[in-house]
Amino acid sequence: GDVYKRQVYGMVQENVYMDPRNAQMVTVDPIGQEITAAEPMDESMLGAQADLRAGLDQAVQQYCTDSFAEGAASAVYPDLTVCISSSIYAPNKAWSGRWQSVYKFENGHLSGTVDVSIHYYEFGNTMKTTSFNVPAREVPADPQEIVDAIRNSDLEYHKMCTQDAVELKQQFTSLRRQLPITKAKLDWAKLQNECKVKGELAGLL
């Protein structure tokens, strides 16, 4: 039920969502986060491209299995809107992350958006959110061709994020104060005496 709770593209009315994969309408309890009721979808709601939608749904599921963390959820709606949601929670490593993408295939063209949020909470609290608009590109009306185009767009965005991370690390490194490494212990007694003499001299001036 992850996609039902996260996306609004299949919402028919409050707490009621389309489940085209199983040709049903489901009612979701937002507090208990579970499906409380289900009924068959009207055939007219399945759209004019039901076969393409079904094939695309299978291809997207395989893509999620191959490329995302376990538990990734996806849905392909009758208007050929593709929604993918994947989350990773790593409390032992003090970070979590979420990937959400929405693609639309229409009139032989694919476009979409990708949103990523990352939360680091070791030795502080740092959050990073990014968004990427995927420009429309011409794609044949074939499930695997569409998924291949989605994969290429996701990889392109991933490379951009990796490059940004490298540049950010370099920027932080350049801000560090360059201090000599003497590998010698600091003589606190000597430092204290110097400060004391300096104070006495200041009182004489």
Explain what this protein looks like in three dimensions.
This protein is of the alpha+beta class. It is built from 4 helices and 9 strands; from the N terminus they run αββββαβββββαα. It has helices at residues 2-6, 50-67, 143-175, 188-204, and strands at residues 11-13, 16-19, 24-29, 34-40, 73-76, 81-90, 95-106, 109-120, 126-138. The chain has a 5-stranded antiparallel beta sheet with strand order 5-6-7-8-9. A 4-stranded antiparallel beta sheet has the order 1-2-3-4, with no helix packed on it. It is elongated. The relative contact order is 0.09. The mean pLDDT is 82.
Annotation, overall tally of beta strands: 9
Strand content: 25-35%
End-to-end gap: 78 Å
Shape: elongated
Continuous helix count:
4
Poorly predicted sequence stretches spanning 5 or more consecutive residues = none
Rg: 27 Å
User: How would a crystallographer describe the biggest sheet?
Assistant: 5 strands, antiparallel
Return the structural class: alpha+beta
Mean pLDDT: 82
**Could you spell the SSE succession in H and E letters?**
HEEEEHEEEEEHH
